[in-house]
Amino acid sequence: MPESHYEKSLIKAAEYRKKTAPLILGIESSCDETAAAVVRGGRDVVSTSVHTQIPVHRLYGGVVPEIASRSHTERIGSVVRDALDKAGVGLSDIDAIAVTYRPGLIGALLVGVSFAKGLALAAEKPLVGVDHITGHIAANYITYPDLEPTFMCIVASGGHSHIVRVNSYTDFTLIGRTRDDAAGEAFDKVARAMGLPYPGGPELEKLAKGGDTNAFPLHTAFNEGESFDFSFSGLKTAVVNILHNAEQKGETVNKADLAASFQRAVTDALTVKSVRAARDAGLTTLALAGGVSANTTLRERLQRECDKYGIRFCRPDMKYCTDNAAMIACQGHYELLTRDPDELSLDPNAASFLQLQ
Q1: What global pTM score does this model have?
Q2: Closest to 261 in 3D by CA, of 210, 314, 336
């Protein structure tokens, strides 16, 4: 009987592991970025291609899932072709295909997973599904060629705020998580309450640069406790209440001061808890990952705290902080080195496996 696609994938996955510099194509479509990248040997980024939907979603003040899915459907073919063209390779030169299959907007994920499965079947390539959060962690491997597990990582994004112990390239232990809003979500909601455009996080950071971080004493007892979990909903609500109360009284709030105070409260919580987690575990490296890792105030705050305790601080280059396919290809590479490829029955999932721990 002729070999099935999966039987061929197992053979090619074995060949992949024997190569010194295999090429892997990464595909990312979990939210509002359609991205593809070609990576050699796991960490050498040969090419990247990204189509952002921000101008469209800005009209609505946030991501509209249906619009995101349609845009991915329209763009994913050209984005993948662009990544291959920039790399100067054809699909036949690719050794494996990695794709984000969780977590994210289910419709958006479905587009990327379906496209990747079609490519894998047509080109007879191994397929490997990647958890988006582990992809963000892997972005640090691209920036730091010498970085290896074990280390602690704080993942802060629009949908997630996790402290993760990276035991190996494919083994992770959840140490702490948000109990409500993620850090990036809180940034965006506060920015929207202040009348700032989407995406709100970068706009709020710009506004905060001219503000007094001590003007508003924002804090939550939970974030100051011994738990490694976070809570940002109360901070968000406090800001909204300050704005509403001032409006009702006809008073003016210094939004730069309010933004700076809010940003300090969030970055303090992320910094103190993640550094304490690294110290308690006896780890000498702390990494930062996720969209909020592009926040310069957080990067500087973490650097100062790590320097205080002799901890190495790693953070991705700015271009790898937000959603991208290079990080998916990188993590996919390490997944394929340690496990069998996925079957074409691979389905997207809205939740990360870390959320199930």
Answers
A1: 0.95
A2: 210
